[in-house]
């Protein structure tokens, strides 16, 4: 057990609370994960990522985790805490209720080491729609001063590529060919705002039994998304757009989606 | 797919949650509950279809079997099962209506409200149906 309060020593409270963490472990060669128990003293402001880092520093140097920015921007510290997908860096331990806290890697993705999963599936899924990073509407105006050196952009697209949506989706868990909520949300962004991309090609890509029609509307992707992207809403919007185009074609008012 | 781990990774298929992701509600939200209810009610309706075909087959065995089937229908336990059937129909139909709406891009941001409304109507209708079944006839 660690005697140190997780996270910065200079912010240690006078009295901390000891919490039990059950952490999934899987090393190269293991066929199944095992669960290790750790007890960590936490404060009101301690996050799950603080705890994991504390365990690594004070209790088990072999615990493997991934993180970078520590402020919900990079999307690298996604884990499942008590079954729910979260970013560890912004998940406060005090808000997790009583009882042991179970920390597992994201689901539906190969585990490389302990809490680190292989994100290639997500990144490869985002390639076909040529996901735009910046909304046209969010480019800086010509008269804006370039105060932060971010050139012409005000902000990046909302998706932080954390993969929480893929872990939470029940269909990703059963259909390996399903495009998944992240890629479909990216496709809807292209359909909304092509900026040189071909929206017809993207719509034809998602108009498939393993595309937007495969979603079974559990809305878990939108529930767990830490950036408010609402992938489920995007999937429903894709369906609405495809249905409207098909109806227009049936009435002789338009061309096939993949002909446009 | 081989079960032999390669380069420290489990086979991809082994890392997918599979059907556990459909039935496990730990850490999930209202939409997942609706998703699960639709699948359970759908399976119940499929099971009922075969049960119904079996009962119809019994009726082909003559007037005696007809009388015994009617007596079975009046059994309180059977009426309880029929109430469960009506519940499954209502859940599947009304939640299906919600899914048809949001799947067409209508009321997507209100999907939780639509689910609560659908289940509220279900509760009223199943209560009325159960009262009728256990008091009439």
Largest sheet of chain A: 5 strands, mixed
Apparent shape of chain B: elongated
Number of domains of chain A: 2
User: What structural class do you assign from the helix and strand content of chain A?
Assistant: alpha+beta
Order of helices and strands of chain A: EEHEEEEEHHHHHH
Describe this entry's structure for a reader.
The complex is a heterodimer of chains A (260) and B (137). In chain A, 26% of the residues lie in helices and 13% in strands. Chain A has 260 residues and is an alpha+beta fold. Chain A has two domains: 9-117, Beta-grasp domain (Ubiquitin-like (UB roll)); 120-259, Alpha-helical ferredoxin (Fumarate Reductase Iron-sulfur Protein, Chain B, domain 2), CATH 1.10.1060.10. In chain A, helix 4 (181-192) runs antiparallel to helix 5 and helix 4 (181-192) crosses helix 7 (231-250). Chain B is mostly helical. Chain B has six helices and no strands. In chain B, helix 3 (30-59) packs across helix 5 (76-103) and helix 5 packs antiparallel against helix 6. At the A-B interface, strand 6 and helix 7 of A face helix 1, helix 2, helix 3 and helix 5 of B.
């Amino acid at each position: 057990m660690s005697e140190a309060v997780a996270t910065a020593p200079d912010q240690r409270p006078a009295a901390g609370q000891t919490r039990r963490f059950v952490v999934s472990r899987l090393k190269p060669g293991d066929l199944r994960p095992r669960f290790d128990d750790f007890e960590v003293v936490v404060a009101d402001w301690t996050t799950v990522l603080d705890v994991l880092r504390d365990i690594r520093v004070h209790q088990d140097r072999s615990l493997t985790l991934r993180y970078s920015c520590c402020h919900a921007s990079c999307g690298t510290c996604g884990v499942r805490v008590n079954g729910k997908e979260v970013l560890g860096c912004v998940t406060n331990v005090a808000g997790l209720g009583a009882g042991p806290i179970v920390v597992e890697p994201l689901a539906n993705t190969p585990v490389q080491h302990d809490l680190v999963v292989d994100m290639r599936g997500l990144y490869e899924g985002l390639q076909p729609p040529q996901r735009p990073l910046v909304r046209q509407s969010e480019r800086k105006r010509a008269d804006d001063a370039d105060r932060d050196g971010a050139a012409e952009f005000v902000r990046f697209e909302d998706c932080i590529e954390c993969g929480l949506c893929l872990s939470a989706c029940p269909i990703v868990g059963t259909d390996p060919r399903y495009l998944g909520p992240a890629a479909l949300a990216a496709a809807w962004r292209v359909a909304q705002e092509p900026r040189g991309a071909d929206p017809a090609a993207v719509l034809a890509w998602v108009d498939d039994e393993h595309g937007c029609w495969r979603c079974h509307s559990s809305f878990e992707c939108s529930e767990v998304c830490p950036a408010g992207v609402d992938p489920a809403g995007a999937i429903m919007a894709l369906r609405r757009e495809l249905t409207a185009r098909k109806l227009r074609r049936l009435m002789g008012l338009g061309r096939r989606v993949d002909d446009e | 797919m081989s079960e032999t781990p390669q380069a420290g990774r489990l086979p991809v298929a082994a890392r997918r949650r599979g059907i556990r992701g459909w039935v496990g509600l730990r850490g999930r939200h209202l939409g997942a509950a609706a998703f699960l209810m639709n699948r359970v009610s759908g399976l119940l309706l499929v099971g009922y279809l075969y049960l119904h075909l079996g009962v119809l087959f019994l009726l082909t065995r003559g007037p005696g079997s007809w009388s015994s089937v009617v007596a079975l229908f009046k059994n309180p336990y059977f009426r309880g099962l029929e109430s469960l059937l009506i519940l499954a129909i209502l859940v599947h139909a009304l939640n299906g209506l919600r899914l048809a709406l949001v799947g067409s891009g209508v009321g997507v941001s209100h999907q939780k409200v639509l689910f609560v409304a659908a289940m509220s109507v279900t509760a009223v209708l199943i209560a009325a149906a159960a009262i009728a079944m256990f008091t009439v006839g």
